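Trying the structure run again after the queue cleared.
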Amino acid sequence: MLAAFLLVYLLYVRPATPPDGKRTLSGLSHPINLYVDVDTALIAIYTDTLDEDVWTALGYAHALLQPAQLLILRQLARGTWHQWYPEQVALDESIWSFALPYRAREAYEQMPDEARKYVVAYVNGLNAAFEERYLRNHPGVVLLPPEATRPWTPEDPIAIELLLGLLGMRLPPSLPPSFHQQLDTLRKILQLDGFEHDLITYLPHTDTWYLRYVYGKRLSPLLIHTTVYLPSDPLTLATVPGTLLLPAGITSWRQWAFSLFHTSSLDTLPATNISSITRTHIYTPHQTYHYETRWAPGTLFIPASSPRRILQSAGLRARSLAPLYLTLLHRHTPPDSVPEDIDGLIVESDGTLRVAGNPDHYLNTSITHAIGYTPWRTFVTSRLQQQTFPWEDTYSLWAAEKLPPLLTQIDSSGASPLMRQALAFLQTWDFHYRANEIAPSIFDTWMSLHPENTSPTTTFELALDKLQRTFGADPARWQWHRVQTACYHTDLLEDLQLPHHRADRRTAPLCEGHAGHPSVPTWTTSPLLGKSLPAAWELYVTPKEHYVRYPYRNLSSPLAMFRTEPVLKVLRLSRLQPASFDIQLTLSPQ
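Done. Tokens:
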């Protein structure tokens, strides 16, 4: 019995010891001290100069934090998923139909030489990390085929960047339904969705930032808070594992934040724009798939559409945003230009504010600058102006504005006892979305069933019926944290029902409900969204304090199988000491 227990522990529970101490890496020019905290998903890099070695350390750290996710992202982005699972060749069809692997190659070849050096340095860090036994025995990595950890190439981070850009892109309704379905499938596998709810807010009178990046149901954060400590100048960055993207950054010479949501559309172009033809073959044990991919700069050929179309895609140009972010980070002079299809705010050290892109929804007042496509953007930004700390605020200006007029239109004559009880909850509600409140559940369920120009009484009764059928007839069971409970996913392969895929209890979905709402500074999902989007990475920065809030659970811990850890973390970053992080490495030249 003891021997069996030890065998199970060694094979399924005990992870390899995290790397610590010193590592020699090829390509480094000087030592770098790297601190990675697996329990909080934070990175700190100490360096004397801001050169390529910083990106080697960043690639190494990204791999330590999210090894399995990076490997899955790469396999999908390169259109080689069939090499792992031939029966899932349809996923590769989605990637090849958007010509994404070719776009990645072209984007890398078109990069300036200076930018390519940083890409190569980042890839060196990834490859060095995946040689560690700690990663090869990681619970998520052991679920993948053995060839998953093959060496990375410089095109891989660009392919992942383009894939994430595609997931955050709004496709036009004119596209054939198959392409919307393919994109929805990719979003479901990667648990990445909801980018249209990103919100960027800057309050110049207090030099305060509030950033919200909504990314779906994935438990591991899409963005990683990274601090680069120069001798006299710490740099605060939001980094995206697997890429060189820096959606947000705060330095002494510049601050910036960009949305991950792309509003570019696809436009039909004449066939004369075709400049080249490439034939691609995907082989499976049962069939050979042939694709003819044609493209010119800024165009795509979609082989599965009927009739065939030549399409232009701003979101899928052969272009990486890495050179832009490298310019923002490394150059004290403002960048010459910013692509028109990405929206964001850039604030220079002298206070000059620049609106990047061409945002459809830009709020510009004397005290607030905000960019966001979420329908609740004005309510959130208005509330931010009134509060000092966002995540203690659950008051909804939207609910306070919308509910009172609706209550006056309810016909309560002949109302059932349940309807009278539900109305009493709403009439005494103070418009706070607290976890144990019942009124928010009634109101949001009602609004999710209440189109414009319909009878409020009818839709109110439908909402009560839905709550009864789902949660029982006792309104005491309709608490907000129960109604908007959402499941965070870690195992990205669970929905594919793949053969030989061994599930791990540590990667099972974790379901919880929280206070908050999309209309308040404290984000959580809602029945109004039409889909469950609990995961958001939020940053709150004042001149004196930095806070970050996101869902996360350390699955590398051997106790993760036996205990439930808090999902949402709110970290006061200015009080954290990197010396207490659980991985402390000195990376030295070989």
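The chain has two domains: 23-329+525-589, 397-431+438-478. Worth checking whether this holds up in the mutant runs.
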